[in-house]
Amino acid sequence: MKKFILLLSLSFTITSFSQQSNFWENVRYGGGFTMSFGNQTTIGISPSAVYDFQNGFSLGTGLTYIYSEIGASTTNVYAGSLISLYQVPKVGIQLSGEFEQSFAKQTANSINTNTSFPALYLGAAYNKGRFAFGFRYDVLYDDNKSVYASPFSPIVRFYF
User: What keywords were assigned to this record (predicted)?
Assistant: First the structure.
């Protein structure tokens, strides 16, 4: 009987929370992209979704895929991430923290190499409406593990 009452009250709590909070009205979808052509070809896409809290904070998740080709060497990077954003009031600055776990498959001269590495990006971007651009820095960057040339990377982010 106690379990039934607990289940019934939990059901009422969840129902009233979902009716009051309008969860999906606070979810934004979007992400970022990267493209580079020349001696090195790089194409990447990073879709994500974040939930906006009323105090300027947003939390969410994202996925990343990057294809890179330099001469006869190719790299495919797959990643999942947890994203936190803070919109500084009245300034137009967006601060971000993102933990990303990446898995890379590199092929060079018919030799395949698989690697995985974490990244913790801290960044700042100028935010205008739905669009933000800036820079971020990977504080966990390890030159021996990462497939990226630098711990710095640009931020190009948009949400709808």
Answer: Signal
Find the angle CA(127)-CA(130)-CA(136) to the nearest 5 degrees.
Answer: 45
DSSP string, 126-158: EEETTEEEEEEEETT--TTT-SSS-SEEEEEEE
DSSP secondary structure string for all residues of 106-130: EEETTEEEEEEEEEEEEEEEEEETT
Of 84, 93, 40, which Cα lies nearest the Cα of 62? 84
Question: How is residue 104 written in tokens?
Answer: 């890379």
Predicted TM-score (pTM) of this structure: 0.80
User: What secondary structure letter does DSSP report for 25?
Assistant: G
Share of the chain above pLDDT 70, in %: 87
Residue 13: strand pairing partners: none
Report how far residue 110's alpha carbon sits from residue 14's, in angstroms, rounded to the nearest whole number: 55
Domain range annotation of the chain: 25-159
| CATH architecture assignment, domain 25-159 | Beta Barrel (2.40)
Per residue in 23-75, pLDDT (tens digit) is 889 999 999 888 888 888 889 999 999 999 988 999 999 999 999 998 889 99
